[in-house]
Specification:
- This protein folds into three domains: about 15-55, no CATH class; about 65-175, Rieske Iron-sulfur Protein; about 195-295, FAD/NAD(P)-binding domain.
- The strands form four sheets. Strands 3-12-11-6-5-4 form a six-stranded antiparallel sheet. The chain has a six-stranded mixed sheet with strand order 15-14-13-18-17-16. A four-stranded antiparallel sheet has the order 7-8-9-10, with no helix packed on it.
- It has helices at about 170-175, 205-215, 235-240, 245-250, 255-260; strands at about 40, 45-50, 65-75, 80-85, 90-100, 100-105, 120, 125, 135, 140-145, 155-160, 160-170, 195-200, 220-225, 260-265, 270-275, 280, 285-295.
- The protein has five helices and 18 strands.
- A hairpin with a 6-residue loop joins strand 8 and strand 9.
Amino acid sequence: MGGCFSKPKPVEVKIEVVLPEKERNKEEISPNGKASPLTYKVNGTVCHYHLEEHPISINPYQNLKDVVEASVCHVKDLENGQMREVDLGCGKALLIKENGEYYAMGHKCPHYGAPLVKGVLSKGRVRCPWHGACFNIGTGDIEDFPGLDSLPKFQVKIEKEKVYIRASKQALQTQRRTKVMAKCISLSNYNITSTNILIIGAGAAGLVCAETLRQEGFSDRIVMCTMDRHLPYDRPKLSKSMDSHSDQITLRPKEFFRTFDIEVLTETQVAAVDIKNKIAVFKDGFKMEYNKLLIATGSTSSPRAKGSVRTQV
C-alpha cells in the first residue's frame, strides 16, 4: 500500500553531547583505554573522551566542606555598570551588575594580581587596570592577553532582596582557573622525526598557541623548541624582579607540560626551514617534518653602533 500508509524508512539520528564548561573537571588523569559514550569533535572528526580523562561533575560544589555562601549586599546597592569587591570570609570575589543581572568571579587578575574592581567594565567584559587583560563576566574566561589563566566563576542568587554568592573556598584562594584541555591521543605511536604542530620559540606567544590548541580539543602532537635552557618563563620579570629564581618565573610548571602532552625541546636551534617540503632543519643536523609551523621567536635588541654614546637621562 502506498501513499501516507507506506512503511516509514528507519532514520539514523546522531546525538552529540556537549558538557558545559563548569561541569568539566580541570584535573586530567591518564587514560586506561576505556572509552566513554560522550563524543566531541576534534580537528573535524568525531573522537572519544575517556571518562577517566574528563570526569563528569554534575554538581560543581560536590565537596560541601569546600563551599562557602554569604550575603554580600542588598539588591539596590549596585547600579548597572558597577563593580564591587566583596568579602566572603575566606576570600574575596568581584561582584558585577550589568543589564540588571548580577555576576561574581575572581577579584584579582591572574597575570600579576591587579585588583579588577579598578578596571573597566564594558559590554560583558572586565579589563585589567594594569596591562589590559580581558575577562568575560559570564564565564570568567580570559579573552585578551597578557596572562594565561581564566578567573573562577561563582554562583549568585537573590533572596529576600539580598545578594548571595556561593563559591569554592579553594577558588577564592587561588583566584585563577585553567581551562579544560585535551591530551595527545597518538603519543605512543608518533615518529620522533615528525610532528603535527611545530612551534619555534617558547615565549608567551608560543605557549599560548600550544595551550589554545589543547583547549580547543586538538589531540595530535605539539612540539615547542627553544634556544633557552629553561621551560617558558615570564621574560619581563628578568628586569623587574632580578632576585627571582628560575622556578618563580616559569609560566607553567614542568608537570603541566607532561599532563597535557606539550613537548618542549630546550637548547635547540632551528637553522633552516624547508617550507615546500615542510621540514625544519636544526643546527645539529636533526630534521623534523611538520604539518603546521608557528615562528614565535620574538626579537633580540640591536647592538649599539660603534662609536655611539649612551645618553644620560
